[in-house]
């Protein structure tokens, strides 16, 4: 640092402070709809639906009570069932598949991987009609377990890809040592490999849960009443009459909360999951 | 792929030595089959739930089949496709799908890049800023669309119009006056964090030494960014664009909630939904489903060629 740098340094730090300020303004602006949703959920209906926005008020839980009165607990229960079962299915099927595609030898790894990625990219619109017809014929329409199975298939490719990227990081020496010790394949997976990739399994499970919890299209078409999940329930607000912004905001907050918390907790793994393991 | 250059285990060593070449091959084959069986459950499950339904959709699309006339069901050849082309529903729908995807992905990448660059700096509360930024992507899409529809876009109680009025600007009925923009705004808002996360990973994976060298050589911040950082980010942009496009091509939630397909926003997924579940025309709807797949394949192969290399890099042992 030479003598003349005092001015440049202070101007640089001023510019840094300005950039930070701009960053925060933009971030808060971007986040505002979420903040506003949470705020509106705690307003009495008359305030939430008023023309001039209110920022300071006495919070009430009226909106949340009204959402529960509309039977939201049941929809949440269904969403939870579908998301948890879908996650279990995709993880249980993905572990051996990812293991085979990374540590064991199978021919045509590339082909198998393309198969998985192509099913992930298969638009739901292309498969929903036969699913609907078949489920209708066998009486499994509006069945939450069936929806969970379909979600399991929807999430499986992502889970396989993602877990594979974690499996590939297991040092081969460890597996080799286990094999020399005469560990069978099952023991090799359960005892040696799984503990090492547990963070990966958790991250894949999380991504699977998020996708299933948020899914709207299939839920709308494959369920009607007893198996209805939260997204189509929320969607039904569109046909609402009168003032309902407080209820809607409360319901949306409850619906979004599990995934928001999960996503915040697992920020580091999120990129990896979203990019199907391509980015670490 | 060194995975199973199975180093012979000591106990087996004698056998291996003794074994003839054919025996060895048989052992390898058995091993290969055992490995393949690990893959099998997942593959069968996906064939049952995605491949077979897709083939069935193709079958449906070649059938004359309206649920209103269940007995009048017959092979129709390409009638559903020709009538899709002539009825004037298909092209606007492809247009809507492609435009919505192109605008949303482009804007999300640009905003994502902006936020990634801003959040790559060290500053107070960076972790919190990052946490707040990813939230729109985590919010249930149906909830996000509803919140925007009522608390942001609404002509009476929406915040955007309140701001416009405060500035003495005319109120805008977003979903009827600018349906396309409405959908694109919400999708951009939801996907900006997605792009930001991917690009941020790219920025953080940059070789700091090269950046310092550029600085020493007197390259300004802007030149360093355009000549070094952007080319480095290319791969990440490609991944973001591919994944974002494939997801948004299927977009349904914001259409169903914000515009109901009016004003040139009837995407293929929404058109199929209307045809099948309101019009009850299974054959016609199936044809739209097949078109959606074709469109996805076109977009994906354009983007995928380069990106697949990235997926495979660091891929196989």
From TrEMBL, chain A:
UniProt domain ABC transmembrane type-1: residue ranges: 76-266
This protein's record includes keyword Mitochondrion: no
Localization of this protein: Cell membrane
Keywords associated with the record: Cell membrane, Membrane, Transmembrane, Transmembrane helix, Transport
A family per Pfam: BPD_transp_1
Membrane topology: Multi-pass membrane protein
Matching InterPro entries: BP-dep_ABC_trans_perm, MetI-like, MetI-like_sf
Any GO BP: transmembrane transport
PANTHER family: ABC TRANSPORTER PERMEASE PROTEIN (PTHR32243:SF52), MALTOSE TRANSPORT SYSTEM PERMEASE-RELATED (PTHR32243)
The protein's name: Carbohydrate ABC transporter membrane protein 2 (CUT1 family)
The species this protein was found in: Humibacillus xanthopallidus
TrEMBL record, chain B:
Keywords for the protein's UniProt record, in alphabetical order: Cell membrane, Membrane, Transmembrane, Transmembrane helix, Transport
The keyword Plastid is assigned to this record: no
Membrane topology reported for the UniProt record: Multi-pass membrane protein
Gene Ontology terms: biological process: transmembrane transport
Domain of life: Bacteria
CDD domains: TM_PBP2 (cd06261)
Keyword Membrane assigned: yes
Location of this chain's protein in the cell: Cell membrane
Pfam families: BPD_transp_1
GO cellular component, one term: plasma membrane
Domain ABC transmembrane type-1 per the UniProt entry, residue ranges: 94-303
Residue ranges of the TM segments: 38-62, 96-119, 131-150, 180-203, 233-252, 285-308
Coiled-coil ranges (or none): none
PANTHER family: BLR7065 PROTEIN, INTEGRAL MEMBRANE SUGAR TRANSPORT PROTEIN
Family named by the database record: Belongs to the binding-protein-dependent transport system permease family.
Protein name, UniProt field: Carbohydrate ABC transporter membrane protein 1 (CUT1 family)
Gene source species: Humibacillus xanthopallidus
Organism taxonomic ancestry: Bacteria, Bacillati, Actinomycetota, Actinomycetes, Micrococcales
């Amino acid at each position: 640092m030479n003598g003349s740098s005092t001015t440049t340094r202070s101007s640089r730090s001023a510019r840094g402070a300005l950039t930070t300020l701009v960053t925060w303004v933009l971030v808060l602006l971007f986040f505002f709809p979420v903040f506003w949703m949470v705020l509106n959920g705690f307003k009495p209906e008359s305030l939430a639906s008023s023309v001039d926005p209110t920022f300071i008020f006495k919070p009430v839980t009226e909106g949340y009570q009204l959402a529960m009165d509309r039977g939201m607990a049941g929809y949440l229960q269904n969403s939870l069932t579908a998301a948890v079962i879908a996650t279990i299915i995709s993880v249980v099927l993905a572990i051996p598949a990812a293991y085979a595609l990374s540590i064991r030898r199978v021919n045509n790894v590339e082909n198998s991987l393309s198969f998985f990625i192509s099913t992930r990219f298969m638009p739901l619109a292309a498969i929903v009609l036969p699913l609907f017809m078949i489920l209708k014929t066998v009486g499994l329409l509006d069945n939450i377990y069936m929806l969970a199975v379909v979600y399991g298939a929807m999430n499986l490719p992502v889970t396989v890809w993602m877990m594979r990227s974690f499996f590939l990081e297991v040092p081969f020496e460890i597996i080799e040592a286990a094999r020399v010790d005469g560990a069978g394949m099952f023991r090799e997976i359960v005892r040696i490999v799984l503990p090492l990739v547990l963070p990966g399994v958790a991250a894949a499970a999380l991504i699977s849960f998020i996708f299933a919890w948020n899914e709207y299209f299939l839920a709308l078409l494959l369920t009607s009443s007893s198996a209805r999940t939260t997204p189509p329930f929320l969607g039904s607000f569109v046909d609402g009459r009168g003032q309902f912004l407080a209820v809607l905001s409360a319901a949306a907050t409850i619906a979004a909360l599990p995934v928001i918390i999960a996503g915040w907790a697992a920020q580091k793994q999120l990129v990896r999951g979203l990019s199907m393991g391509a980015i670490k | 792929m060194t995975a199973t250059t199975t180093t012979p285990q000591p106990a087996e060593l004698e056998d291996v030595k003794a074994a003839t070449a054919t025996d060895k091959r048989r052992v390898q084959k058995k091993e290969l089959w055992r490995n393949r069986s690990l893959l099998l459950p997942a593959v069968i499950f996906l064939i049952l739930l995605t491949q077979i339904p897709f083939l069935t959709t193709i079958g449906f699309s070649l059938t004359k089949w309206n649920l209103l006339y269940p007995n009048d069901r017959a092979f129709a050849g390409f009638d559903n496709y020709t009538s899709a082309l002539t009825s004037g529903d298909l092209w606007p729908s492809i247009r809507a799908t492609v435009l919505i995807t192109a605008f949303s992905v482009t804007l999300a990448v640009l905003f994502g890049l902006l936020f990634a660059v801003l959040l790559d700096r060290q500053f107070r509360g960076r972790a919190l800023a990052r946490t707040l930024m990813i939230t729109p992507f985590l919010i249930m899409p149906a909830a996000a669309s509803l919140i925007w529809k009522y608390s942001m876009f609404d002509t009476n109680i929406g915040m955007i119009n309140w701001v416009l009025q405060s500035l003495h600007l005319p109120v805008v009925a977003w979903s009827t006056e600018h349906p396309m923009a409405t959908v694109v705004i919400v999708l951009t808002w939801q996907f900006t964090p997605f792009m930001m996360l991917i690009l941020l990973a790219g920025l953080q994976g940059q070789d700091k030494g090269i950046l310092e060298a550029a600085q020493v050589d007197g390259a300004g911040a802007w030149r360093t960014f355009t000549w070094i950082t952007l080319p480095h980010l290319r791969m990440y942009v490609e991944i973001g664009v591919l994944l974002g496009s494939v997801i948004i091509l299927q977009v349904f939630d914001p259409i169903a909630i914000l515009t109901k397909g009016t004003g040139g926003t009837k995407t293929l997924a929404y058109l199929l939904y209307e045809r099948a579940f309101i019009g009850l025309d299974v054959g016609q709807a199936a044809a739209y489903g097949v078109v959606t797949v074709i469109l996805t394949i076109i977009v994906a192969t354009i983007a995928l060629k380069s990106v697949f290399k990235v997926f495979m890099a660091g891929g196989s042992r």
